[in-house]
């Protein structure tokens, strides 16, 4: 049987000796490195690293707690912000959606076919349109309409669903409500939105209409971490497709749906596989 694999991710203030410190720890503990990627941002002075490793011989710490206990002194010495988990761990996620269900369909299908690296724990929506689809997949659906003056209560209910589902990640899969500053702060670094344009172009509502009016030759989609500032969060993934004068707004919307679904799934998988790091107003995404 293949030995269990582990993923160590870390970030820290950059200095000489980080890679040596980590690889030295693994060597001393019979850790066999399967994949290692690191990046030094010379502008911010931050360092990022992701190591995939497995048991390489006798003396390898047995289990997550033993590994974390063994690594903690090294991490303290190097002043690391770190996380260590089994490679097959899939973070639990809540998906939020409004009336456009194409990204939700895609995520549910990928989850069902084992191609999604997060576990969909529940789906919430300010409309009831997705209930039948979600329940067909055997997943909890929560209809959280926004009553007049009820945005704060609705957001509390959304946080309640995340807590009850033990979910760490919130995915806005064409959820057309602007999260409050408070909610955005509470899910900072663990909330991913898909915006239906190639940011920074065409922020806000109805980007395809405005792209058509502008006569663009490329349209795209952008997955980003959510912040309190609409469509301003750190970009995780983007893609574009060529369009031309023959493509009316309906065509742009149709072409855009596929781009949105693909870009969002890539971003969610980067998060689930611990390949994604916040780096100030930007991100580091290991391939
Ligand atoms: N705090 C944030 N919340 C959300 C973000 C974000 O970047 N920061 N992105 C949106 C998604 N989105 C574009 O990608 C978007 C959604 C909604 C709107 C908008 O103007 N909504 C209106 C209501 C529209 C309606 O009811 O249909 C509003 O909220 O008043 C613009 C952009 C998700 N949330």
Automatic annotation (TrEMBL):
Pathway(s) of this molecule = Purine metabolism; IMP biosynthesis via de novo pathway; formate from 10-formyl-5,6,7,8-tetrahydrofolate: step 1/1
Enzymatic reactions:
(6R)-10-formyltetrahydrofolate + H2O = (6S)-5,6,7,8-tetrahydrofolate + formate + H(+)
- Which family does the record claim for this protein? Belongs to the PurU family.
What Gene Ontology molecular function terms does this protein carry? formyltetrahydrofolate deformylase activity
Q: Give the enzyme's EC designation.
A: 3.5.1.10
- Please give the name of this protein: Formyltetrahydrofolate deformylase
Read off the Gene3D superfamilies from this record. Answer: 3.30.70.260, Formyl transferase, N-terminal domain (3.40.50.170)
| Active-site positions on this chain | 231
Q: What does this protein do?
A: Catalyzes the hydrolysis of 10-formyltetrahydrofolate (formyl-FH4) to formate and tetrahydrofolate (FH4).
Q: InterPro entries this protein is in?
A: ACT-like_dom_sf, ACT_dom, Formyl-FH4-Hydrolase_C, Formyl_transf_N, Formyl_transf_N_sf, PurU, PurU_ACT
Kindly list the biological process annotations in GO that this record carries. 'de novo' IMP biosynthetic process; one-carbon metabolic process
Q: Give the enzyme class.
A: hydrolase
A Pfam family reported for this protein in Swiss-Prot or TrEMBL: Formyl_trans_N
Q: Report domain ACT positions.
A: 7-85
Q: Which NCBIfam families match?
A: PRK06027.1, PurU
Question: What are the alphabetically sorted keywords of the record?
Answer: Hydrolase, One-carbon metabolism, Purine biosynthesis
């Amino acid at each position: 049987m293949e030995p269990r694999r582990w993923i160590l991710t870390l970030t820290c203030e950059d200095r000489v000796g980080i890679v040596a410190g980590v690889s030295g720890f693994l060597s001393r503990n019979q850790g066999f490195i399967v994949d290692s990627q690191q990046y030094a941002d010379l502008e911010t002075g931050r360092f990022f690293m992701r190591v995939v490793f497995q048991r390489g011989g006798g003396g390898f710490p047995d289990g997550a707690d033993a590994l974390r206990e063994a690594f903690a002194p090294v991490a303290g010495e190097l002043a690391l912000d770190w996380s260590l988990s089994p490679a097959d761990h899939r973070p639990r996620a809540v998906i939020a959606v409004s009336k456009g269900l194409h990204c939700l369909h895609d995520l549910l299908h990928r989850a069902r076919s084992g191609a999604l690296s997060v576990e969909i724990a529940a789906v919430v929506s300010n409309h009831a349109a997705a209930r039948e689809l979600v329940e067909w997949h055997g997943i909890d659906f929560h209809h959280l309409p926004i009553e007049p003056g009820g945005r704060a209560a609705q957001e509390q209910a959304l946080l309640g669903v995340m807590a009850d589902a033990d979910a760490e990640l919130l995915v806005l899969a064409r959820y057309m409500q602007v999260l409050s500053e408070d909610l955005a702060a509470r899910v900072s670094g663990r909330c991913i939105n898909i915006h239906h344009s190639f940011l920074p172009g065409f922020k806000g509502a109805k980007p395809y209409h405005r792209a058509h009016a502008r006569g663009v030759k490329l349209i795209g989609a952008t997955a980003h971490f959510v912040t309190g500032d609409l469509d301003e969060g750190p970009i995780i993934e983007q893609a574009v497709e060529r369009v031309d004068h023959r493509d009316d707004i309906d065509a742009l919307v149709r072409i855009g749906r596929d781009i949105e679904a693909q870009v969002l799934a890539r971003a969610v998988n980067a998060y689930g596989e611990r390949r994604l790091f916040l780096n100030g107003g930007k991100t580091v995404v290991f391939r």
